[in-house]
Amino acid sequence: MADVISDDGKHSAKDNLNIGFNEGDQAYIIVSAAMVMIMVPGIAFLYSGLARRKSALSLIWVVMMSYSVIVFQWYFWGYSLALSPTATNGYIGNLDKFGLKGVLGDQSPGSPLVSELLYSFYQMQFLGVTAALVIGAVAERGRVIPAMVFTFIWATLVYCPLACWTWGANGWAFKYGVLDYAGGGPVEIGSGMSALAYSWVLGRRNEKMMLNFRPHNISLITLGTILLFFGWLGFNGGSAFGANLRATMACWNSALTAMFAAITWCILDYRLAKKWSLVGWCSGTISGLVAATPASGVITPWASVILGITAGVACNFGTKIKFMIKIDDALDVFAEHAIGGIVGLIFNALFGADYIIGLDGVNMELKAGWINHNWKQLYIQVAFIVACCAYTFVVSALIAKAIDMIPGLHLRASSEAELLGMDDDQHGEFAYDYVEVRRDYLAWTPAEREPKADGAVIIPQHGIEGHQALLESTRQNTPTPQGSAPATPPEKTV
Asked: Which residue ranges are recorded for the region named Disordered (predicted)?
């Protein structure tokens, strides 16, 4: 019975709980939630394209399955632990909304413009995207079931507290005055630092297998980036929680930041390779969108241009950090998301403006950053950044290590499995059918300056001796695979 009675005592079978909410605002946030959900397959395609083809399908699987885990976790207790309006400790919620109990037509704890039922659904998509970003840390060497166990526990012990700090009515960061519009702390720092911690516990990929490594499918990377860009307009625009001017400004700022970051990244790559990289454009676009996440509803458009350039530079050079600290963050989640989120949060202190925040018609007369002479905002933002980074990395690493020590839940696949690829080892399915048919998919032929003459025979040269030896061993010692035709057909018996 409690599920059909809202907290103010109204019964959904007798009272119209829709009264008090603007239908246009409600429709806009429902559509924004669907747009954010599209980011999950966008991440899957992006990660798949960035990896090698022998693990391309596995990355799609872990991203999509992580979303399945998150839908259950958020319904079960995630929403209550993150954003229960009755929680008072400032660090994590309570179980008052366990199983969405009583989550109906009350005003949401995030905004009076939308219902709590809609708010909880919209916020679930944020966690889904964050978990999808984190799980890219398993790339090319991680087992998938332990990764799903990690996802559930991580969402409970890392994301829910971060969301409570930032957006909870009594969250310590919210009451402290932190400006984080759409998730620079919970989403961007949360994903970047968690992926770095998981990669650290998981260990580096086998170095001899990384010869001539490049993203295997740039078309997939571009498709994933475009889906992310589309979804991010719902991510940042919808965080105004209404079809209002602040939502429109957030979309404008997101586009400006993304495109100036893309231009910057391409120029930085060109100075080294003297080529115009599409992967560089995609990377720059994502770094700009990341930086816009905490800032797009807070700073001015001209500041968004500066933010795009700054984020492009910071994230581009940030990709070198993993080599310095010797952590194999295979998909650069830390460089793109943690660093981009930090830059965006700092820009809120420098360029946050009350006349941008007030465009939603709700947060009026709120002092923002240095534009409003609110000088203390900088150390508030820095304190929040330090807290998010430290808590996320330490707790994520502890969760990953604890799971890794449980028998049967070791995070990492064997060296043989890594050599064959996660698609073969973990799934028995392949993104490309010729990977299964043609087992020497690591064969490669060095490029030459002059084109081959007509009729010239090209002999593939294997760059990885271990793989070639494995092939020979397989041919000599492995029985005929199940389902394949035997060498000599058996005689027909009656």
From this structure: 470-494
User: Hey, which residues does 5 pair with through a beta bridge?
Assistant: 11
For 2-404, CATH number?
1.10.3430.10
Pair of tokens at residue 225: 């980036």
Per-residue pLDDT of the chain (494 residues; tens, 9 = 90+): 456 666 666 776 777 788 888 899 999 999 999 999 999 999 999 999 999 888 999 999 999 999 999 999 999 999 999 999 999 999 999 999 999 998 888 888 888 889 999 999 999 999 999 999 999 999 999 999 999 999 999 999 999 999 999 999 899 999 999 999 999 999 999 999 999 999 999 999 886 666 556 788 999 999 999 999 999 999 999 999 999 999 999 999 999 999 999 999 999 999 988 999 999 999 999 999 999 999 999 999 999 999 999 999 999 999 999 999 999 999 999 999 999 999 999 999 999 999 999 999 888 878 889 999 999 999 999 999 999 999 999 999 999 999 999 999 999 998 888 888 898 889 888 888 655 545 444 444 455 556 556 555 555 554 445 555 555 665 566 555 444 444 444 333 33
**All structural domains of the chain with their residue ranges:** 2-404, 439-478
Q: Nearest-CA neighbor of 17 among 77, 95, 105, 85?
A: 105
Backbone Cα Rg of the chain: 25
Q: How far apart are alpha carbons 285 and 325 in whole angstroms?
A: 25
Answer yes or no: are the C-beta atoms of 198 and 412 closer than 8 Å: no
Q: What is the pTM of this model?
A: 0.86
